[in-house]
Design brief:
Elements lengths: L2 E3 L1 H7 L4 H8 L3 H9 L7 H11 L3 H4 E3 L6
Antiparallel strand pairs: 1-2
């Protein structure tokens, strides 16, 4: 998939665990894990906003587009 998540990078930069982020934003650890692993099919803007607020980052710091080469 050409969209990758860098949630783990932002968590490390903020020295924050997934559990702590979960408690701060009110999102289950399971849902954050799905996002972190790149298995999420969608994310609400309101969820992304909460995550960015807590991690002091922008959506572009969490989500990255990496084009796939044509085969």
């Amino acid at each position: 998939m050409p969209i990758v998540t860098n949630l783990d990078v932002q968590l490390a930069k903020n020295k924050m665990s997934l559990t702590e982020l979960s408690e701060r934003v009110g999102i289950t650890i399971a849902n954050l894990s799905i996002l972190k692993s790149g298995k999420a099919k969608a994310i609400r803007f309101s969820t992304l906003e909460k995550i960015c607020k807590e991690l002091k980052c922008t959506p572009g710091d969490i989500l990255e587009y990496i084009p796939q080469e044509d085969t």
